[in-house]
Amino acid sequence: MKIAVTGATGQLGNLVVESLKQKVAAENIVALVRTPEKAEALGVEARAFDYEKPEGLADALKGIDSLLLISGNELGKRATQHANVIEAAKKAGVNWIVYTSLLRADESSLNLAGEHLATEKLLKESGIDYTILRNGWYTENYTASIEGALGAGAFIGSAGEGKISSAPRADYAEAAAVVLSSEGHKGKVYELSGDEAYTLTDLAAEITKQSGKDIPYNNLPEGEYAGILKSLGLPDAFADAIASWDTGASKNDLYDERKTLSELIGRPTTPLAEVVKAAL
User: Fold this and answer.
1) How far apart are CA 188 and CA 129, in angstroms?
2) Has residue 120 been placed in a domain?
3) 197 and 64, same structural domain?
4) How do residues 110-169 score in pLDDT, each as one tens digit?
5) Are 90 and 79 contained in the same domain?
6) Whole-prediction pTM value?
7) Which of 44, 97, 214, 232 gets the most CB atoms within 10 Å of its CB?
């Protein structure tokens, strides 16, 4: 019973593989990656797998029973890429696909939601057993900006006082590994988020507390925030997207009171303070 993980050398994928190795034999795990040589450190079988090359996907999935489809990171291309994988999985006889979607994708105002919903629809129509993991925000999405905030003397964004129920990637990876290695999850849609919600004001206060340097949160209009991100060298489209996601956060698109993630992993999700400490 082989389990395959797409994007296995990515930030989430490699954590899933490491968590899976604690639950199933390494010989039953397959890393699906663009460059198999880069996956050697994972200690599992690696196969070439590129969402953009549908002609080779079915062969790479031969003998795979369960597939974790980690959503691609190329905005605007993901629905087509995911469709390529799902079609290949049908041809290869994959029995079960677990997909990483977006928290409350069916009601979110985030521009990320459309491609996730399109993929969810394809999965439900594929005839393959599925489980959908609607992952909330990764805490690292914000703590990655701590270094810049320390240098600038402020944490900036457009999230207002919106509540953010995030968790670090490792928590979501553990949940994926739990689902892939246990029974009772087929046909389910899980809304996954951190136990404790915070605002960016709260995050700035935690950075201040731990760093000993006064770091206020400065809330900016979406366009102004995007402009600053562009001035720092981010591509225009990506800067606009990040700023728009913060506006979504201001509407509580990243907030969720369910504790499904901690229920799946059997422990509380990692607190914000711990992730800030690790980032510092």
Assistant:
1) 10
2) yes
3) no
4) 999 999 999 999 999 999 999 999 999 999 999 999 999 999 999 999 999 999 999 999
5) yes
6) 0.96
7) 97
